[in-house]
Amino acid sequence: MVTQAPGSPDASRGSAAGLSRAELDALRVRELVACHIRLHELIGRDAPLTAVLTELVEGVERYEPSVIPCVVLLNRETNTLHPGAGPSLPPDWLGALDGLVIGPNIGSCGAAAWSGELAISEDMAVDPKWEPVRDFAAACGLRHCWSMPIAGADGDVLGTFALYGRQPRHPSPDHLELMQDSARLAGIAIERRLTMEKLIHDARHDSLTGLPNRRAIFEELETALPQTSSAAAAVMFVDLDGLKGVNDSLGHDRADEMIREIAGRLRTAVRGPDFVGRFGGDEFVIIATEIADRPQAAELAERVLEAVSRPMPGVGFPAMTASIGIAMITQTCDAPEAIRRADRAMYATKHAGRDAFQFDDGVIRAQSRRLVMARALHGAEMRGEMRLVFQPVFDFRRDNIAGVEALLRWCHPEFGEVSPAEFIPVAEESRAIIALGAWVLRESCELIGALSEQTGQPLELSVNSSACELARKGYATSVRQTIAHARFPVALLNLEVTETTLIGSDAATTRNLQELESLGVGIVLDDFGTGYSSLSVLKQHRIRGIKIDRGFIAGLPDDRVNHAIVAGVIGIARGMGCTVTAEGIENSCQKDALHAMDCERGQGFLLARPMTSKALTVLIHEAGAKQQARPAG
Ligand code: C2E
Ligand code: MG
Ligand code: MG
Fold first, then answer.
1. If you measure from the C-alpha of residue 548 to the centroid of ligand 3, how many angstroms do you get, rounded to a whole number?
2. Is there a contact between 327 and 301 (Cβ–Cβ < 8 Å)?
3. Which alpha helices (DSSP H) does 312-419 contain, by range?
4. Nearest to 335 by CA among 438, 233, 244, 218
């Protein structure tokens, strides 16, 4: 506890002025003690953390007006700083602190939170830690900052207590003591708040999955129901089929692992505003407000069934299914009634044979084509249902085949041939595309590598890559391993990605793209013009080629707008030094128009349809023979 004001004069001086100063100091100390007592009361009464910290900071400021105190909180998950209290600091400065990632050279508070040690900056103008924000600090009128880490009982840093000032200054021993005391008090307040938050969280959440528990489900329903007067809401009771068997055969630990996995899948299968809770053992409840009608609820239930039934990671897990009961509710229905109705419908689904869903008025939904497809896509490549075709891409200038695009084909045992336009989006949503994409890459590298060797003509290979493949950690590494294994020349491989993949790219996608680019794999923009046609995407990535979507080629040569767009994209590609390919050339008028615009490459039914690798070999041989027969020059 501080007993003497920092910088107070020697009380032994004994002059009248000294005495009154000593009295003043005693008053200030008394006020500080009173402030500490108030703080303990506030903490004991669970007052809001900001109120407690503001009381602390204001008390310190009254006691020592020559400094500007503040408390900064540390988010330990994100390692970012957030203002706790600093009523006398410029609001702009507090705003700038919010979300700052800590580090050894991130001002005094960033450094103190990072190292867990006192960080003193006597003069920000010369301290290298302040370099990035020095000018901003000066504009806010700040010159010094001393920052003391606030430690929890376990020693972890919870934030920092800092004293700012408007002139360069070194802290006195009393200042340091003041900071230490304040940091200790702030630590008690923050820790108490964290404990309370954890208690509140634990009371409403299930410890195995982290999902809201039964109590929270009812609370959610109570708040959701009054808002469902105009639009309906769907309450779904989801019960896993046969979890008891997993418990018996694999033991409780593995069954717990499965429940955790499925809880995560349910969370990603629902839409943003939907609520997922764990009702009990193998029972989950989904509350979907803003559901307009039954078809929408049915669609959501299908997504849930599909997500549950995806193969489990690791070996030895049986595939899971679920039975779902759906109650469409309005505000006239109370929470227990909503759960009862959904639960009853779930039991009816169980009796009807499980692995399906049913509305509570008895309407059974047969499994849709989409759901059947989503399930059948997992492992389809291993069951021999998938095959590849290759569509040649022609080089107009050299008048030869520059390369091929690998295209996936699926023959489903019941549905027959399914178009990629139908099954690729389903494979993407169900993530089956991850295994399928890896298979396409492996197969096509092996087939085209062998074909190039056989014909003596190296061919570029383009493989389509979906956004979710590129967003996977380690995707670039697996591409590298696949091409190394197939001994396919990396410079001849292109990955076709769409603009949306690049525009919405997260950190993992960007990393994969950088790694692929540095490996020498070409990134080609597919279907250019159908997304945002964003020119900044072209600037941000090293693009090897652009493929103009067939929608623009279809209107050639008469459609003036399409003509102008195609000519523009050809110009951009040329300027950037990347290849440009016109997709979907179906007639010679289109081809002539593209020739006239000096388009470099083309692909389309007029030139060659997608074909088997055998047919491609014949075509390449024929094309080679034609070239040789052509008179030189
Ligand atoms: P895409 O990458 O733009 O592939 C070109 C599509 O245009 C192919 O359709 C091809 O058959 C079609 N096409 C080519 N020339 C013409 C033409 O002159 N006229 C018309 N009307 N169409 C033409 P396909 O094979 O049905 O594939 C559709 C889409 O499915 C592909 O569009 C691609 O986005 C996706 N896809 C196909 N295979 C794969 C794959 O292995 N992985 C991924 N992620 N997506 C794939
Ligand atoms: Mg493509
Ligand atoms: Mg395309």
1. 7
2. no
3. 335-351, 369-377
4. 218
Q: Indicate the pLDDT class of residue 229, thresholds 50, 70 and 90.
A: low
87-99 pLDDT, tens digit each: 999 999 999 889 9
Cα distance from N-terminal residue to C-terminal residue, the chain: 96
- What is the token pair recorded at 272? 């943003």
CB 244 within 8 A of CB 310: no
Instruction: Give the three-state DSSP class for 456.
Output: coil
Task: For residue 564, report the distance from its CA to the centre of ligand 3, in Å.
Answer: 20
> Any idea which residue has 């100063």 for tokens?
21
Q: Which of 407, 411, 418, 431 to mutate to test the pocket of ligand 1 (most atoms within 8 A of CB)?
A: 407
Question: Can you spell out the DSSP letters for 254-299?
Answer: HHHHHHHHHHHHHHHHS-TT-EEEEEETTEEEEEEEEE-SHHHHHH
Distance in angstroms (rounded) separating the CA atoms of residues 264 and 242: 19
Residues sharing a CB contact under 8 Å with residue 147, sequence separation 6 or more, in sequence order: 72, 107, 108, 109, 111, 112, 113, 118, 119, 120, 121, 160, 161, 162
Q: Where are the alpha helices (DSSP H) in 270-412?
A: 294-309, 335-351, 369-377
Query: Tokens at residue 158, please?
Result: 């919870």
Q: Which residue out of 417, 464, 585 has the highest number of ligand 1 atoms within 8 Å of its CB and is therefore the one to mutate?
A: 464
Q: 269 with 377: CB under 8 angstroms?
A: no
Q: Measured between alpha carbons, how far is 150 from 84 in angstroms, rounded to an integer?
A: 12
User: Cα(286)–Cα(239) distance, rounded to whole angstroms?
Assistant: 11
Å from CA of 438 to ligand 3 middle: 19
* pLDDT value at 632 more than 60: no
Q: Is the pTM of this model over 0.85?
A: no
Query: Model confidence over 116-166: pLDDT tens digits?
Result: 999 999 999 999 999 888 888 999 999 999 999 999 988 999 999 999 999
Q: What is the pLDDT, as a whole number, of residue 318?
A: 74
Ligand in closest contact with the CA of 444: 1
Q: 425: closest CA among 412, 408, 413, 442?
A: 408
**Kind and range of the H or E element at 144?**
strand 144-151
- How many CA atoms lie within 13 Å of 103's alpha carbon, on the beta-carbon side? 9
Q: Give the mean model confidence (pLDDT) for residues 247-276.
A: 91
How far apart (Å, rounded) are the C-alpha atoms in residues 119 and 108? Answer: 5
**Using CA positions, which residue lies closest to atom 21 of ligand 1?**
584
CA-closest candidate to residue 544, choices 532, 527, 526, 568: 526
Residue 343 CA to residue 280 CA, distance in Å, equals 12
- Pull the structure tokens for residue 200: 């509140």
Q: Is the pLDDT of residue 429 over 90?
A: no
Ligand 1 binding residues, C-beta < 6 A: 391, 407-408, 419-421, 424, 433, 437, 440, 464-466, 496, 526-527, 550, 583-586, 603-605, 610
Q: Predicted confidence band at 447 (pLDDT cuts at 50, 70, 90)?
A: very high
Q: Three-class SS string for 458-504?
A: CCEEEEECCHHHHCCCCHHHHHHHHHHHHCCCHHHEEEEEEHHHHHC
